[in-house]
Structure formats: C-alpha cells, structure tokens
Amino acid sequence: MRVGMGGHGGSGQDRATWKDRVQAWLRAPGAQPWNVFLPPDFPESGVVEWRGPEGETGRGPLNALPGAARRAQIRAWTPAIETLLTVAQWPGRGRGRLAQALPYLLEEQLLADPETLAFSHRDTDAGIFVAVTAKERLSAWRAAMDEERLGVTFCPVTLALPWRPGTWSCRFADGQWAVRTGPYSGFGAAGLLTQIPAAFRQALAEAVKAEAVPESITLFGGDEALRALIARELGIPVVADARPLGDGEAPGFRLGETGGAVSATGLAALRALRPALVALALLLALGFARTLFDWVRLSHEEARINAEMTSVFTASFPNAPVLDPARQMRQGVAKLAARAGGAGQGFLAVLTDASPALAGLANGALTRLEYRHGEVRCAVRLANFDALTALKHHLVRAGLAVQVTHVISHQGGVQALVTMTRRTP
User: Fold this and answer.
1) Closest CA relative to residue 138, chosen from 122, 123, 120
2) Confidence check: pLDDT of 268 > 50
C-alpha cells in the first residue's frame, strides 16, 4: 500500500471554465454513471479502462473517452493497494469532531504522517468504517481528471466488487489483488497471478480467530486455473462470476470528500440534489415571472386610472392646474360638500346632532329652518322661557354651539331664533 509516500503534491489547478462546470453539473439527473478503472501507474501512464451503462467498453487515454461519458457522472475506481480500509471505534458521544480525531484513533495502523493522508469515513451501527488514502495520490488523480474537465468521484476498486453476507469477493488485475470482506471493508495487495499474497492468508487467519470465516469466495474476472489455485491454497470453495464491476449500488466512500484536505469539486455532491434544485429554480422563475406580469399589468392600470382621474378633474375644475388629480379631486369635492351643507360642519351634520332635541319639543313647534354659511337657523315657538332654556341646554349637550336671538314673549308663549353650529374640537 502506497499510503502517504511522499509529500504534498498539490490539489491541482482547476482549468475548467465556469461554463464547463455548469454544463457538467446540469448533466441528466437520472443518467447512469460511467465506470473508469485506474491502473496502478495512473496518471503516469494515462491509460485507463472504461465501461458505460449500456455495456460500452474501451481502453485508452482519458481524452479518448466517448462524448457520452464526458456528459455523465464518472466513478473512478482507484487501485485497491492505494487505500487502507479499516474500522475505528469512537468513544465520544458526539460525531462533530470525528473527522479530526480519526488520525489519532488509527495512529497505530498508519505507516505515514497523518498530515499527508486524507480520511473518509462511513458511520454505521457496526462501527466507523474508514478509508485512508494519500493526499498526493488523490491530488494526482484529481488533476488528471480536471485537465479533461470530467465530473468524477473516487472510490477504491475493492468496493466495486459485488458482495453478499457470508462471502468474500476477490479480483486480480494489473498485478494487484483486491479482496472485499464486507460492506465497507477489504484490502489490496500486490502479487503474482500464480501465488496467493500473504495479506490474503493473514486476513483469512484473522477471520478464523473471529469465527467469521466466509462460506465461499467469489472470483471476478479470473480463469479456471486461478479459481482452482485459490480454492486449493485457502481451502474454501471458490465460485467464478462473470458480472462486470461497478454496476451495483453507489460506493460507500467518496475518497477525499470527508475529513481530507483534498476534496472533490462539489459537483458530485450536489448532483443528487439536482431534481429538487431544478424544481426550486423553476418555482422561483415562475414566481418572478408572475410578479413581473402583475407589476406591468398594475402599472398600465395605474396609468389608465390616472388619465381617467385627470380627465374628470379637468372637466369638473377647468380653471385649476392639474398637479395631483386624486388629491385635488378630494379637496374639490370637500369644498363642494361644505358649500352644499354636506361637509363635517355642514347642514346635515348639525341637523343630525340637533334632531333629538328638536324632535322632543314639549308644547312647541319648529316654524322655520334654514342653512347659511355653515350655520343652521331655526325659528321655534315654545310655551315659556323655561322650555327655551331646556332646548338650549339639550343642544349644547349634543355638541353644538348655540345662540338664541330675537326672543319675543306673547300671550301664547315665547318665539325665538336659535342659531346652531358644530363646536370645533
């Protein structure tokens, strides 16, 4: 395993334009990813193998990838020997500092400086499964993919092997063994096709101690001779399987995206949210369009009403300049109402306040009623001066300013002219 050999290789410069990134992010949400298998000497050699969702296969440099692959999401399966898959036990209750604590929890298993490593983890009920990869290798892979402007997620090829409980899965390719022992566990080892690596035997010995010996081993991509060699050397039934790798569920780890300094571009993480984001963008666009439509419609309506008010105002008050037709209209109507006795200080308002007292005249009568300049004048005939005093008292209590004039006493009673206005607050 070449974890952490060497220093910082740099995360690679992003040479893609924003237009290219947006186009990559807008790839079809339901499109199946393409699988690209990186050899141990990538990117030095630059030659990879690929397989599309429709069974398209090929081998060559990255720039030879089909156009459909460039428009789709790519799963780059990295060499098994480059990543350490292990389990960590976290005694703390909270998970907030787990990423910072992983280098210390795994210190005894690491062969390199933790500062040179990128840690990815998956928290499950069975423990915290961790993938450890050298930042230098991640940086080199990322730089090669960025140079071709590809949207890529990285995962060790160990987890590309199909697996089911009670079995192990293995594969030999490019001088390396990849063995998957669980949902998120496995190992890689360099070796020969004609010899079982020591790491394979050691993992089986540990499984015997833990009473977790697999019932069988599934071999992918090997011939009958290799199947017979594994069965004979390990003493476990070996079943050959011709299914292609990487077509199963999404990988449990995206190398460098959790707890590592080398992170993905972020396109892959957001791609799963594309349907919701696109729907939200459409709703916002429709809402903006509806608001713009209403604004235009109301602007036209305002202009029409303003023109109509101006026309009515000029017809009603031809000699007045038009400044604010609505305000001027209200002022003009108020003046007309005051002149006609309909304003707040006019005839109707005064008579409304005075009517209870006038209606209750005892042994009297209202002989005349007129309105002039905001004053209501009424001539009354009453039985005596006490009735006149009571009438004035009732009118004052009703909120009116009252003035009694032209009082004449005669044998039949008293006549008087009562002038009333509304009292100013």
Assistant:
1) 120
2) no
- What range defines the domain where residue 354 resides? 341-422
Q: Give the Cα separation of 389 and 400 in Å (integer).
A: 15
Look at residue 273 in the predicted model and tell me its pLDDT.
Answer: 67
pTM of the model: 0.56
What are the tens digits of pLDDT across the range 351-402? 888 888 888 776 788 888 888 777 888 999 888 888 888 888 988 888 888 9
3-class SS at 190?
strand
405 C-beta neighbours (distance < 10 Å), count: 9
Tens digits of residue pLDDT in 158-216: 998 988 899 999 999 888 999 999 888 899 998 888 889 998 999 999 999 988 899 99
79/30 same-domain check:
yes
- Does any domain span residue 308? yes
Nearest-angstrom CA–CA distance, 60 and 77: 15
Q: How far is CA 103 from CA 9, 50, 131, 399, in A?
A: 20, 34, 11, 89
Written as one string, the DSSP assignment of 310-325 is HHHHHHH-TTS--S-H
Asked if 403 and 259 sit in the same domain, the reply is no
Q: Give the CA dihedral 230, 233, 236, 241, nearest 10 degrees.
A: 0
2 lies in the same domain as 141: yes
Q: Are 124 and 180 in contact (CB under 8 A)?
A: no
Nearest to 54 by CA among 38, 39, 66: 66
Contact 191, 242 (CB under 8 A): no
Q: Give the whole-angstrom CA distance, residue 297 versus residue 291.
A: 10
Are 88 and 115 in the same domain?
yes
Tally of structural domains, the chain: 4
What pLDDT is stored for residue 150 in this prediction?
85
Residue 401 pairs in a beta bridge with 421
Are both 138 and 20 inside the same structural domain?
Answer: yes
Cα distances (angstroms) measured from residue 186 to each of 159, 169, 177, 354: 8, 9, 11, 102
- Phi/psi for 345 (5° steps) reads -105, 15
Residue 4, pLDDT above cutoff 60? no
| 248 occurs within a structural domain | no
Sorted by sequence, the CB contacts under 8 Å of residue 55 that are 6+ apart come out as: none
Specify the DSSP element, H or E, that contains 340. helix 325-340
